[in-house]
Amino acid sequence: MADTSACKDFFTYAVLPELEPSLAIKVFITLLYVVLLLVGIIGNGITIKVTQVLKTKGYLQKSVTDHMVSLACSDILVLLLGMPVDLYSSIWYPFLSAAGNASCKIYQFLFETCSYATILNVATLCFERYVAICHPFKYKSLSGSRTIKMICCVWLASVFIALPLPFAMGVEDPLKPIPNFNYTIKSRRRHTNCYVKNSNFSICTNLTSMWKVYQFSVFFAFIAYIVVLASVSFMCHKMMNALKATLAGTERESKSDGKHESQRTRASRKQTIIFLGLIVAALAGCWMPNQIRRIMLAAVPKTEWTLKYFRAYNIIHYIADCFFYLSSVLNPFLYNLSSKYFRQVFLQVLRGKVTIEHVNKKALDSTYSRRPLLISTLRRSFSKAKQSRRHKENARPEGDKETPPTEENIGLSDKTSSKSEPNEIEV
Which of 298, 321, 356 is the last residue of a domain? Predict the structure, then answer.
């Protein structure tokens, strides 16, 4: 029998009922998850459709489209794989014994793969924009088949990051002691007194026999996240500087030449700068709580968790999961914020009727819309010149009258007009 005074500060099976979330918290998180799931799947699904429309209509390059589709697919997989399982095993039945060692391993592997595919897709999308903005002459060499290869490398790298988890995770008693673990003298005495042998309680957790593998997996994934975050921050910083320099240079040229840059162009550049800043903020703010939660799992074995540690972990767990799934919902909103054409087609797809014209047809129609005004203006000027000359001829004495000017003399004969009019239209 465990000594109550020795076990009161440590996490044991006896305290499980008081650590389970209340019904109000369960209902609130369930409703929040349902909203995030619906908005995320609909938003990312429409994003895939919008990118295809914009690519077909000539507003979006194929390389950018491929990156955006890959990112949207990884976001949808994260939501579909993670939310139902978390809702069942972490919110409603957190301390229910799990069944199925293979399903535990497969789920952990797939979820980790899709999660890191999301963050790596964000990195490659930023890299593609970085090269286009900061190194435009090298941009063409990265398009085409290299984009597909880059996306394939993203998914392979995600599989590599998630590969240790099937070996480190499984169904087991979470309070099973870790073999050859260097406990402190005090905690080992308390752990030995508090541990209940032959427990039937088991969940999908890290295996005690693979503790070192699990630690390696978590800390390696955290290093990968920090590297990606630092790289994206660096690229976004360089792109912001390039856009600001272009904006400042255009303003100086406008003052010296007396010309003014259009408000639309200035607003577009400022929107791009805001979009890049939001990418870094979303990547850091939505992913960092989840990384802290994972480090808490890998830093201290569950047999050594105190009640304060477990309560702190529970709070961070709920917050981290909400922000983590929010990151898979935000991308369509960021696209709508940064692009007028994306927002226009997004609303058209929602209404079920896409009416946007091809970019070349739109430019052609804009050119032709100015032609009737140009032709009518030229014809009026020729008509006024003709009437003025006739008036002068009528005002002269009859003996001094010259031969009246014909249409050939002033260049308006049918033959001359048929040759010159197309040139006038092309102007």
Answer: 356
133 shares a domain with 207: yes
Residue where a domain stops, chosen among 356, 378, 407:
356
Q: Does residue 158 form part of some domain?
A: yes
Amino acid at 42: I
Would residue 334 count as lying in a domain? yes
**Which residues lie below 8 Å from residue 227, measured CB to CB, with a gap of 6+?**
none
The SS3 assignment for 169 reads strand
- At 367, the pLDDT band (50, 70, 90 cuts) reads very low
Q: Pick the closest to residue 207 from 232, 179, 226, 228 (CA basis).
A: 179
b/e map 184-193, b = 16+ CB within 10 Å:
eeeeeebbee
Residue 375 and residue 299 in one domain: no
What is the Cα–Cα distance from 29 to 6, expressed in whole angstroms?
A: 35
Give the C-alpha separation, 325 to 265, whole Å: 34
Q: How many domains does the chain divide into?
A: 2
Q: How far apart are CA 111 and CA 107, in angstroms?
A: 6
Task: List the domain range (segments joined by +) for residue 157.
Answer: 12-356
SS3 3: coil
Sign of the CA dihedral running 147, 149, 155, 157:
negative
Alpha carbon distance 316, 159 (integer Å): 26
In a shared domain, residues 135 and 227? yes
Return the bridge partners of 206, or none.
169
SS3 172: strand
Query: Is the Cα dihedral 199, 205, 206, 207 positive or negative?
Result: positive
pTM (2 decimals)?
0.73
Same domain, 350 and 388: no
What is the tens place of the pLDDT at every residue in 115-169? 899 889 888 888 888 887 787 777 666 666 678 888 899 999 999 999 998 898 8
Structure tokens at 180: 């050859």
Whether 4 is in a domain gets the answer no
Q: For residue 314, what is the domain's CATH number? A: 1.20.1070.10
Claim to verify: residue 176 and residue 223 sit in the same structural domain = yes
Calculate Rg over the CA atoms of the chain: 34
Has residue 1 been placed in a domain?
Answer: no
pLDDT tens, residue by residue, 287-301: 899 999 999 888 888
Q: How far apart are CA 289 and CA 293, in angstroms?
A: 6
